[in-house]
Design brief:
Blueprint (H helix, E strand, L loop, with lengths): L7 H12 L9 H4 L2 H4 L7 H6 L1 E5 L3 H5 L2 E2 L2 E2 L7 H4 L4 H4 L13 H10 L4 E7 L16 H4 L6 H11 L3 E6 L24 H19 L5 E4 L7 H12 L6 E2 L11 E5 L11 E6 L16 H13 L3 E6 L9 H17 L7 E2 L8 E6 L2 E6 L7 E4 L5 E7 L8 E4 L2 E5 L10 E8 L11 E3 L7 E3 L4 E3 L3 E8 L5 E8 L7 E8 L3 E10 L8 E6 L2 E6 L15 E10 L3 E9 L8 E9 L2
Parallel strand pairs: 1-4, 1-10, 4-5, 5-6, 6-7, 8-9, 9-10, 19-24
Antiparallel strand pairs: 2-3, 11-12, 12-13, 13-18, 14-17, 15-18, 16-17, 20-30, 21-24, 22-23, 24-29, 25-28, 25-30, 26-27, 26-29
Helix pairs in contact: 8-10, 8-14, 13-14
The structure holds 4-nitrophenyl 6-deoxy-alpha-L-galactopyranoside (JFZ).
4-nitrophenyl 6-deoxy-alpha-L-galactopyranoside binds next to β8.
């Protein structure tokens, strides 16, 4: 999919600019899914906004192939193997003859979700390969008719999941169907220009979706993906036709054309700043969505717990994918690591479920989430002296305590700063949560609070998102994959092309000290060896860019951490960092962050 070049940041800026003229301004993308703007809160979204943690399951014929075709191994997203290896339909369908997931156990899967603290499950009923993992009367290319298994796993799974109080939903690839002559995107068997997408929609997608919405009880979600072949009007008609079957079921934004009930970000993408409304970030546990034998790169329990807290701190849900194998087993490490995550949630779930974004931006110690009257501090890195700063807090604070044992902590308020005396905490803990209880109205999150820089942490990263831009400079989310279809996203300042293009950052240094300054960037060969300037603390530091590589969306985007200067802040306070090229013409680099790492 093409990535929309507008970022959260530019949209926010647009929204602010346009707010001066509220009558005529157009709705921004962020606002489209924000009911506080339209005033029409969709009551069906209530459970979704409270849920915070979902389980995605990619399971299909590709799981049986496990990333291998005719003795050759494929890397990247396993559910794309038919496309990657250009497998003809006639050959691909033969894989069904040996697909026999006898180890599949609906209760085990549902219980794993429950134990992991998961509140909703979405499983692929049909992915792009066109194979139906449910009993379909519309097509014979389904698990009941085409495999020796002959049973409908979705019947048992929907029941087992719902029985445990976990919402159940289906992923359905509504446009891409590589099995069908008129389905989207199989160009190796069929001529794309001769396809009649409407015929495919009428004869397969819509009838199958009607089966799914009729035969499996109440669905929490219908998760559409990679839309195509329909105008906005046609998409609206498609939604309306399905909606009547289950008016309460939520449709994901990937139904296309700005329709859908809540918003999905790109794969493996967390927005950099809080977003209102109902939305979801999706990640897969290892590198692939569908099972691949040789993909053993599983996120650790700590990584999952921190990812969940990070997504929640921006106001969204995390839906984490697992890829069961062709026998019906969920990978061993997915089971283990999800159960560990569940243990953390057992104790700390209050800080995640039903929460929304934190009232302060990310700090060197971690992130925050909030509920009316409460702000949760997710401490990932403890300050060396144990004094935790919560800046820009305008509520009337009554008490601060550790979530785990409820013990009250000593704190003091100076201006809008809250300083909390932390107890000794386990340095290896994934995330230690503290609670601030307050009364009174607290203003919404403020994007303009200077980024905290402190010598109490080994590293202080000022991310591109927080740049104020001048000239032609932009903030963009760069999208690229490592293997194939495993999309990554990095937010960068781009288009620093002329002396007048600038990225400025506001930082707050909380104690005097000596710091090393480093720039983390990616730099194409033609941009290398250009001079740039960084001004901070009344000093100008010059540097010359180092080459990394060209931007290629089908390759990793390497970043270099280029240490460029040493400086001494003699006073605590707010400082401005200004970065710009020293020549006109070429982009200086794609800047990911500025680091200030304490020395003394
Ligand atoms: C899609 C699928 O093609 C993929 O196989 C997987 O199911 C994933 C969850 O979704 O891939 C996408 C869709 C949208 C974006 C990226 C990958 N996007 O908007 O950035």
């Amino acid at each position: 999919m093409k990535k929309v070049k507008l970022t959260t940041k530019t949209l926010l800026t647009l929204a602010l600019l346009a707010a001066a003229n509220p009558v005529t301004r157009a709705q921004t993308m962020d606002e489209m899914w924000d009911s506080s703007v339209s005033g029409k809160e969709n009551p069906n979204l209530k459970w979704f906004k409270e849920a915070k943690f979902g389980m995605f399951i990619h399971w299909g014929l590709y799981a049986k192939l496990a990333g291998e075709w005719k003795g050759k191994r494929y890397y990247g997203s396993g559910e794309w193997i038919m496309s990657q290896a250009r497998i003809p339909v006639a050959e691909y369908k033969q894989a069904a003859q040996t697909f026999n997931p006898v180890k599949f156990n609906a209760d085990e899967w549902a219980q794993l979700a429950k134990d992991a603290g998961i509140k909703y499950m979405v499983i692929t009923a049909k992915h792009h390969e066109g194979f139906s993992m449910f009993d379909s009367k519309v097509s014979d290319f389904d698990i009941v008719d085409a495999t020796p298994y002959k049973q409908d796993p979705m019947k048992a799974l929907s029941a087992a999941t719902r029985k445990r109080g976990v919402q159940f939903g289906f992923y359905y690839s509504q446009f891409q169907d590589w099995y069908e002559p008129n389905g989207g995107k199989n160009s190796w068997d069929f001529d794309e220009s001769k396809k009649d997408y409407q015929k495919y929609y009428q004869e397969k997608a819509i009838p199958q979706l009607k089966e799914l919405l009729s035969n499996y009880g109440p669905l929490g979600i219908v998760w559409f993906d990679t839309p195509g072949g329909m105008t906005k009007e046609q998409t609206q008609g498609f939604v309306n036709e399905l909606r009547v079957l289950q008016p309460k079921s939520l449709f994901s934004s990937r139904v296309g054309q700005g329709l859908g009930d809540y918003r999905d970000f790109g794969d493996s993408e967390v927005p950099a700043t809080p977003i209102k409304g109902a939305w979801e970030s999706i990640y897969t546990h290892n590198d692939s969505w569908g099972y691949i034998k040789h993909d053993m790169n599983f996120k650790t329990p700590t990584e999952i717990i921190r990812l969940l807290a990070n997504v929640a701190s921006k106001g969204g849900n995390l839906m984490l994918n697992v890829g069961p194998d062709g026998e019906g087993n969920i990978p061993e490490y997915s089971v283990k690591f999800l159960r560990e995550t569940g243990k953390w949630l057992d104790k700390n779930g209050e800080s995640i479920y039903s929460s929304t974004y934190g009232l302060i931006p990310a700090q060197p110690w971690g992130v925050s989430t909030s509920k009316p009257g409460k702000q949760y501090l997710h401490v990932l890195h403890r300050p060396v002296n144990g004094k935790l700063l919560v800046p820009d807090f305008k509520g009337k604070l009554s008490k601060v305590y550790a979530l785990a044992d409820g013990k009250n902590l000593v704190w003091k308020k100076t201006g809008n700063d809250i300083w909390i005396d932390l107890p000794a905490i386990d340095a290896d803990a994934a995330n230690t949560v503290f609670v601030m209880e307050f009364s009174g109205k607290v203003p919404d999150y403020n994007l303009n609070v200077p980024v905290t820089v402190s010598n109490q942490y080994p590293e202080n990263m000022v991310e591109a998102t927080f740049a104020k831009l001048k000239g032609a400079a932009k903030i963009q989310s760069l999208t690229y994959s490592h293997y194939y279809g495993d999309w990554k996203h990095t937010i960068c300042v781009t288009d620093l092309k002329n002396k007048s293009d600038e990225a400025d950052f506001s930082i707050r240094v909380t104690e005097p000290g000596v710091y090393k300054i480093a720039l983390e960037y990616s730099c194409s060969p033609e941009s290398a060896k250009q001079e740039g300037s960084l001004t901070v603390n009344d000093q100008e530091f010059l540097f010359r860019t180092l080459r990394t590589s060209d931007f290629d969306k089908k390759a990793p985007l390497p970043f270099i951490k280029h240490t460029i200067a040493t400086t001494t802040f003699t006073k605590a306070g707010v400082y401005q960092i200004r970065i710009h090229p020293l020549q006109d013409g070429l982009e200086l680099f794609r800047l990911k962050s500025v680091s200030l790492d304490p020395v003394l």
